C-alpha cells in the first residue's frame, strides 16, 4: 500500500470507528422511541414507554404540569417507577405480550436479526482493513468497503423496520399510546448508517486502480514493438 493511500485509509478508519461506536450504542440501548398516552388531566399518574431492539421499559410518571414539548406523558426523564422486560426473540412455545399486541414481536425479531447481520459485516470489514496494511494486501480494501456499505444498509433497514413498528403501535386500537417521538438511540443508528455507507464507498474508490490523466499521451509515449 502506498503511503498516500495508507493515510487516506487511516482517516477513513477513524470515521468508521465513530460509525461503529454509534451503531453499537444504538444496538445495545433501548431509547429508539418513546411512547406516551394522552394526558387528560394533571396531578395523575400516566405510563410512558421507551424501547429498543431487545427490551421494553414502562415508566409510571406523576404529571404535575403539562409537558412543555407537547409530548403527552413526560418527559421520560422525570422520576417514576420503572419496569423493563426483555423481548423473548428466539424463545418458542411462549406467548409474550411485548407491546400488548402479538404481532409487535415479529417486528422486533426482524429488526434485531438485521442488526446482527450488520454487526457481522462490520466485523468482517474491520478485519479486512487491518490486514490490508500488510505488504501487497491492499486488494482487501475492496471487500472491506463492501462489508461496511452492507453494514450501513442493514442498520438503515433495521431502522425502517423499527419505524414501522412504532407506526403500527400508535395506529393500533389495542394500546394506550397515541404519541411518540424518536430518541437518541434512533439518532445513533441513523448516524452510523451515514458514516458506514460513506466510508464503505470511500474505501471502494480508494481501492480502484488509478487511471492515467491523459490516456492518449500514454499510448503515444509507449515504445513501439520491434520485430525480430
Structure write-up:
This protein has 228 residues and is of the alpha+beta class. Helix content is 51%, strand content 15%. A hairpin with a 3-residue loop joins strand 2 and strand 3 (55-63). Helix 1 (3-28) packs antiparallel against helix 2 (104-132), helix 1 (3-28) packs antiparallel against helix 4 (184-207) and helix 3 packs antiparallel against helix 4. The longest helix is centred in the last third of the chain and has 31 residues, at 141-171. The protein is elongated and about 70 Å long.
Compile the SSE list and pairings.
Elements: H1 3-28, E1 33-37, E2 44-51, E3 55-63, E4 80-86, H2 104-132, H3 141-171, E5 177-182, H4 184-207, H5 215-221
Antiparallel strand pairs: 1-2, 1-5, 2-3, 3-4
Summarize the structure.
With 228 residues, the chain is an alpha+beta fold. It has helices spanning 3-28, 104-132, 141-171, 184-207, 215-221, and strands spanning 33-37, 44-51, 55-63, 80-86, 177-182. The protein has a 5-stranded antiparallel beta sheet with strand order 4-3-2-1-5.
